[in-house]
Write a structure and sequence with these properties.
This protein has 383 residues and is of the alpha/beta class. The protein has 17 helices and 12 strands. Bound molecules: magnesium ion (MG).
């Protein structure tokens, strides 16, 4: 029986992953969540999990009251690292939100545990370290994100050296075709109304600004060893074509399916098996038409900032990511307007100098510097 640990178990990816584990008899060894003690305790009870981590330290006693006395309750980054270095685990699913995912990923790699990766920031900020260390340790990284899963699926059975490039698809988000004038006063509720995907709050805002696509652009570079000019971003409004690859003979292979994360989650967890999955069947005839378009790089400046960041390299991607995390949180708190997110990310990109990455501290300090920079701008009245 396959054994798994899940970081971010109460989120959208985590809860769907547990459903997949149930269906296919994968044993859950440990679970971690940010602050949702009620759901975490329920998951532990239902799946007989004896090791839990609640990231928010102050929630520890609340969780301890909800679980059996033989359950180990961990907290904070130390707790995540303890889970990431558990013995006898075949795979760790990392589906936490934000930069907090980087260190647990590196810890699991150090321990030789394969990773199903749903935490974008791990590769965006620490791509070089993560990929180099994984190679050294012979650790497999299975992408969970629908686009990267699609690319990974399209690469199966073909020669990597004959790959010409990839087509990274984007839904375009809730503000597709909108101008900057139209976006000046959009509120949190409008930004959270994604047309195709139901996801957590942070990633949904990132989809509205197209930052999400920028992060995925950077992730793809690391996962598939690509150069920026090998990636074409195409808006695929229906989110049915999840991405595609192009080979030297100009043949393009795409992966399609209904927009349901259970397909890529299951592929990562059960790779290389393709077995029954609790999702709808894709009827192309029901869709009738699939549409394709170019993204609007001027309106959606977060996307442009990400591409510039990875083209420059070093800590620049960590800088745009850190800046974005603070800006998105401020937008969700009603402190800044929607378009300010892109402006702050672009300012951080332009004004914070990059460094080479030689160790995890380089990444963490660039991230902190970007956060400080954006917090300061917001405090000074950038809104
Ligand atoms: Mg995606």
């Amino acid at each position: 029986m396959k054994k798994i640990t899940i970081l971010g178990s109460t989120g959208s990816i985590g809860t769907q992953a547990i459903e997949i584990c149930d269906k296919h008899g994968i044993e859950i060894i440990a679970l971690a969540a940010y602050s949702n003690v009620t759901l975490l305790a329920k998951q532990a009870k239902e799946h007989n999990v004896k090791t839990l981590c609640i990231y928010c330290e102050q929630k520890r006693s609340e969780l301890e009251k909800l679980v059996d006395s033989d359950v180990t309750v961990l907290t904070g980054m130390e707790g995540l690292k303890t889970i990431a270095s558990m013995n006898g685990v075949d795979m760790m699913l990392n589906s936490v939100v934000g930069m907090v995912g980087l260190v647990p990923t590196l810890t699991a790699i150090e321990h030789g545990t394969d990773i199903a990766l749903a935490n974008k920031e791990t590769l965006v900020a620490g791509g070089k370290l993560v990929i180099n260390n994984a190679k050294k340790k012979g650790v497999n990284i299975y992408p969970v994100d629908s686009e990267h899963s699609a690319i990974f699926q399209c690469l199966q059975g073909n020669k990597r050296e004959q790959l010409k490039g990839i087509i990274l698809t984007a839904s375009g988000g809730p503000f597709y075709k909108k101008s900057r004038e139209e976006l000046a006063d959009v509120g949190v509720e409008q930004a959270l109304a994604h047309p195709n995907w139901s996801m957590g709050r942070k990633i949904t805002i990132d989809s509205a600004t197209l930052m999400n696509k920028g992060l995925e652009f950077i992730e793809a570079i690391w996962l598939f060893d690509l150069r920026p000019e090998q990636i074409e971003i195409v808006v695929q409004r229906e989110s049915v074509v999840h991405s595609a690859v192009e080979y030297m003979d100009n043949s393009v292979i795409a992966q399609m399916g209904v927009p349901d994360m259970k397909i890529p989650i299951q592929y990562a967890l059960l790779y290389p098996e393709r077995v029954d999955c609790p999702t709808k069947h894709l009827s192309l005839a029901d869709y009738g038409t699939l549409s394709f378009d170019r993204p609007d790089y001027e309106t959606f400046d977060c996307l442009t900032a990400c591409i510039k960041a990875i083209t420059i390299g070093g800590t620049k991607p960590a800088i745009v990511n850190g800046a974005n995390e603070v800006a998105v949180a401020a937008f969700l708190d009603g402190k800044i307007k929607f378009l300010k997110i892109g402006e702050l990310v672009t300012k951080a990109l332009e004004n914070i100098k990059e460094k080479d990455i030689t160790c995890v501290e380089d990444v963490l300090s660039a991230d902190e510097q970007a956060r400080e920079y954006v917090r300061k701008l917001i405090d000074e009245g950038e809104n």
